């Protein structure tokens, strides 16, 4: 995924499914470097992780 698409997903009112290593995640923010994003797993756990945006996949 690229930074432009991450920004589109963040600004969209729709729930757009995104995965990271096969796990469904929410994108919390695109980080200032433009190459990483802060995400957390969908569900009760809200542990946040910084990941490379090129490892995110839109379902």
UniProtKB/TrEMBL annotation:
GO biological process assignments: asexual sporulation; sporulation resulting in formation of a cellular spore
Protein's cellular compartments: Spore core
Keyword annotations from UniProtKB, A to Z: Sporulation
Gene Ontology cellular component annotations, sorted alphabetically: endospore-forming forespore
Domain of life: Bacteria
InterPro entries given in the database record: SASP_SspH
A UniProt-annotated Pfam family: SspH
Induction: Expressed only in the forespore compartment of sporulating cells.
Protein family (similarity comment): Belongs to the SspH family.
Stated name of the protein: Small, acid-soluble spore protein H
Organism: Mesobacillus foraminis
